[in-house]
Amino acid sequence: MFSWLVRTASACWGSVRRYALMSKDEDEDDALLWSRGIGQHSGGEFSIAVVQANECIEDHSQVEIGPGATFVGVYDGHGGP
User: Fold this and answer.
1) Separation CA 62–CA 72 (nearest Å)
2) 10 in a structural domain
3) In whole angstroms, what is the distance from residue 48 CA to residue 41 CA?
4) With CB atoms 3.0 to 4.6 Å apart as the test, which of 2, 28, 32, 69 could cross-link to 52 if both were Cys?
């Protein structure tokens, strides 16, 4: 149903990971686990860790930062087995 979105996201994902300075855990050789340490943002510090359920990235997330609140949304794509 959303195969066009998956193809578009997959095509862009290599660039996103390269420019977002993500790194895999040094002790593990798991391509589905990656993270970014503490970084600076105009709203404060942030960090991120992601564990993918499968090779095909079908889920997406959203972060909205405002002066009074931060919204974090994680959405399941339901495209897996």
Assistant:
1) 6
2) yes
3) 13
4) 32
Q: Is residue 31 in a domain?
A: yes
User: For the whole prediction, is pTM greater than 0.70?
Assistant: no
Phi, psi of 45 (to 5 degrees): -90, 155
| Spatial separation of the C-alpha atoms in residues 31 and 25, rounded to whole Å | 9
pLDDT tens sequence across 22-81:
555 555 567 778 777 888 877 778 777 777 777 777 777 788 878 888 888 877 766 655
Domain that holds residue 25: 3-75
Its sign, for the CA torsion 41, 39, 19, 7, is negative
Q: Which residues pair with 44 in a beta bridge?
A: 41
Return the structure tokens found at 55: 């090779």
pLDDT of residue 14: 55
Taking the CA atoms of residue 1, residue 15, residue 29 and residue 49 in that order, the dihedral angle to the nearest 10 degrees is -80
Domain count, the chain: 1
